[in-house]
Amino acid sequence: MADPRQQLREFIDFSPRNDHIIQDGEYCRSADFVTQFSDEEVQQLIQVYKCHQPNVRPGLLATKCEASLGLYFRTKETSYLPKAVAFGSLIAYHVSLDTSNFDRGVLLSIFARALLVHRQYTPSDAPSDGKLLDDSIYYCRKAVELGPLEEINRALHFYDLGDQLTSRYAERHDAADFAEAERCFQQASTLKPAGRPIFVFRWARLLKERDEFANLEKTEMLRTYMGKLKEAVISETNAFRPAEYRTSLSNVWWHFGYSFWERSEVTHNSDDLKHAAGCFEQARLAPLHGSIDRFRAYQDLGRVKAIQFMQNGNLEDGNTAVEMLTEALKIQPESSLAMESLGNHLRVFADYTNSDEMLSRSAEILRKAIAHYEEALSKPGNDGKTTYTMHNDLANAYYFNFKINLLVEDLSASIRGYQSALKTLEESGLENAKRANLMVTHGLAISLTAQFEVTQQQRDIDRAIECYKKCLQGATEKSLQYVTRATNLASAYQERYKLTEKIADVKESQRILLEVLEWKLGLPADHRSNLCNHLGRAYLFSYIVYREPVYLDFAKEQFQNALSSGSTRHAFQLAASNNLTRVLRYKARQTKTLSDQIAALAQMKDNLERLKPLQESSQHVHQDSFMYNFIDFILDTWEDSGYNATSMFGQMYLSSVLTMLPRMRTLQVSAIVRLYMYAALAQDIIAKKPGEARNMIRAAADLLPKAILLSFGRKDTLNNLGNLVALPSFTISYSLEAGDSPSQALQLFDKVRSVMWDQVLSSQLTLQGKRIEEFPALQVKLETIQRPLSKAKARQTKNALSGDINESLVQQHEIYCESVAYQEILGESKADPELEAFLRLPADTSDLVKYAQEGPVIIVNSSLFRSDAIIVTTEGVDSLRLPMLEGRSMTERENWYAAALHLMSSDLPAATQQLNQVLEWLWDAIAEPIFQHLGFNGDVTADSELPRTWWITTGRIGTFPLHAADRTTRTPDLYGDYTRNGRRYRPTNAEREVTSIQEIVDSRGGKSKVLLSPNRDVALRHLGRADFAHFACHGVCDGDDPARSALRLMDWTAKPLDVGCLLQQENLGCQLVYLSACESASNKSKFRDEGLHLAGGFQMAGVPHSIASLWHVDDFYSVDVSERF
């Protein structure tokens, strides 16, 4: 069978052709021409030649050429442009030039246009750029020369040729091109008078190019240009048909208006601006060719109206400017120029009219101001003072934009701007350079402090402190400027303390603030309030460190001084009131006296009263926050009483949740879940309504997926889940207390536990076994909201004791809006069954009895008020109350176990004795009653076959070594001399241990491979092939994030072999993993389930058996243990 490309080549060569039109080696006559087509395109072209007569083929090829150009304009995929040229060259090669073919001129012009478009959208530095333009002009000439004189499109051929000659003239300024182009426009106007507006417009552009090249004085150049444009617009007749031309009449009017605007900048004649506005209005109303025409007309009419408003203060001009620029942004929302223009005009208009609505949109100004400054700085010729001022103003604009948008790149640009201003000042030699230097340095310090709040990098706050100190040294003592700079320096010291916890920074902050206050300067109320608030914060930090009540008294005094300062600045007053509430809460928890508890409650009420002046959205957010703090304080106080059933605060908590929670609009879902959890406790203990308690726990469980979905990242998810860690345990306790069957209790427990632990052990959002990535529309919406909201939330967390919360009030409005947006997303999800299912607990699982085929499954649950075992056997699901796990007994044994672990590194006999007591208690309280319930009476012989039991723990019992429960008088296989030193990369005896294990395996006919200092990828690759793996290395248990508990392999810092990594593996064929590594079966996190550790991670990843360590162990004894195993 013949090669299709060769076949196509033969069709091209043996069809009627114009060798004098397409030169040898060019375009379709090039040797590799057919290679650029796909197989499908080759077959399509063969069909054109094979199935159609020669006179039809150029028309079909023209269709393909236009289609390729259309695809380019729709997709912006440049690969379509060479295809358009290729099809166009075939048109020119095969078109009949016989006089009987009236389409010959049009068909040749199609090739010329394809060349022109290819040239326009090819980088200007491309080698083919000049040739494409020359060839386009050549084929335009051919269309004119060879086309019929009476052809209807002949005027357009002249126009195209003149247009492309104008483009070449603008680049090369060849007088011959100018003369020919002018003749073309004249000829086009003669042939088709109806098209004069377009033909004369392009002629005007040609004249402007000439005069600009000749450096003609601008007003003279504009006079000629505008005269021709006027000729263009007044030549419009009813015979003009917009669709016949590639340039619109709107574009002509826009250029006419812009020329008036240009002249107004030279003459400062207000009439020129008036004429410009009139032309732009005509452009808006004239026939359009696309959105770009509409956009430019609206934008520049708005810009001119904004200038007129600044000149005359006419409100009608101001309103028109807002309307036009707003419409422009609807057409092109990403236009930086339109945003700058609207932003700047809104600022001026808002100042003029005192409009809060316009001020709320002021954020749009800043990005535009930034663009203005950057453009100005890019221009040469600025003197030192101008350059320094613009750098400083640019830095200020970036900083204020950051305060609104919380974009870190704005903050970095602000810092760079201040640094550039300082450098310019240093080089300028200005007389007031020192004073200006301190001003810029102070701005730099503020930006560095803000950057620290985002990055939490100590170097940022260190640099900020050095800048503040320099500014303070340069200020006049006891001046208002000194007070401001001293307050900022003291605040920076406090920020650094929150990172380093070095109390010296707090003390230095106290010293600075006390010094200023002791001067008794008669400061303005706002400054006095701010100083007292910061000093109160310093005392509060001192209390947190030393726990000495006197610091609470000092802090209370300062916050009260701030409130009585006479400041009318609402943000300062609200901050002081909120901080005073914190002090009173601390004091109430410390003293546990009713009077202090009542004082804290009264201050919380005062906080709510101070919210009333706020706008509704900010009020709701602050109100919800304060109401939550109130309920949380009540809960803390009730907890201090041991959740006493007769406690007044327990009753208050239940009442508060029932009455306040339905009114909270912006409370985070995880907070609502927590409130429901402890409301269930109150319903049971105080109201004696176990059924209501069970219903509240179910409500909390139903909200759990949403609480996870609406977290702001991994850290926030873990923090939220940490606050809900008791929920799985509560599901069992309250279900059983309400009379639900053990099977029902287990079903709810299993759903909640699976959702929570999926998130604890996974770095990706996963619910119902599906990832958020499976719902791209939902993911995009959530990410759009989470970015600004998480940043605002992070800053609020870092500034929890901030004295200056005026910017926080702005953020609270944003948070309210984002909370509303979250609710809208959740509302939308309910209309989609699949998305709605994503936000629900898993459906009921199948019969859990099947899991007990290999032995009983026992879930041991210990909660605040009752403890039970859920026992699953092949006969069904049963429950057993475990009274010895309740009350003080549990707390006492927790202390025993902690003491045993602590003593292992210093006093092994004492540790052994203590641990034996714990194991005996585990036997008496848990193992023995459960085994008796199962019918195991203890009569065991050497030949007895005992069933395997599967233990799952939840609640407080989760950290105990339940699997080792024993009533004997010895601790099984316990070896001494335990150590906590894990700093070495590989344990000293690791190689001896590995060698010993290898000898044992080889001696019994196995095949072994030793990996010395492997990295993660190597270890995972071998785990996929091995039956048994033995790790002798250090392990680390992460107390904050169980998914990060890891083995310390060679690259553990960059690529840790942690639980999260293990759960992503799909091909672990290993049957047994022996982890001779410290804490590989330990769980230090809030999530007390026994399986949330490294050994459990291997099992969840598919390895059925794992041996691991519960604590730190010396590797000397690890060798002996592994050999005996």
Quick gist of this model?
This protein has 1125 residues and is mainly alpha-helical.
- Largest beta sheet: what is the strand line-up? 5-4-3-6
Number of strands: 12
Helix percentage = 55-70%
Q: How many individual helices?
A: 44
What portion of the residues fall into strands of 2 or more residues? Answer: under 5%
Could you give the distance between the termini? 71 Å
Q: Tell me about the largest β-sheet.
A: 4 strands, mixed
- Residue windows where pLDDT falls under 50 for at least 5 positions: 763-770, 784-826, 969-987
Average pLDDT level: 78
Write down the Rg.
Answer: 40 Å
Question: What is the SS-derived class?
Answer: mainly alpha
Global outline: extended
Defining traits:
single chain; 1125 residues; mainly alpha; Serine Threonine Protein Phosphatase 5, Tetratricopeptide repeat; 4-stranded mixed sheet; 3-stranded parallel sheet; 44 helices
Could you characterize what this model shows?
This protein is mainly α and 1125 residues long. The protein has a four-stranded mixed β-sheet with strand order 5-4-3-6, sandwiched between helices. A three-stranded parallel β-sheet has the order 7-11-12, with helices on both faces. Among the domains are: 1-147, no CATH class; 302-378, Serine Threonine Protein Phosphatase 5, Tetratricopeptide repeat, CATH 1.25.40; 654-845, no CATH class; 848-936 and 947-964; 989-1124, no CATH class. A hairpin with a 2-residue loop joins strand 1 and strand 2. It starts with a helix and ends with a helix. Helix 3 runs antiparallel to helix 4. The longest helix is centred in the C-terminal third of the chain and has 27 residues, at 908-934.
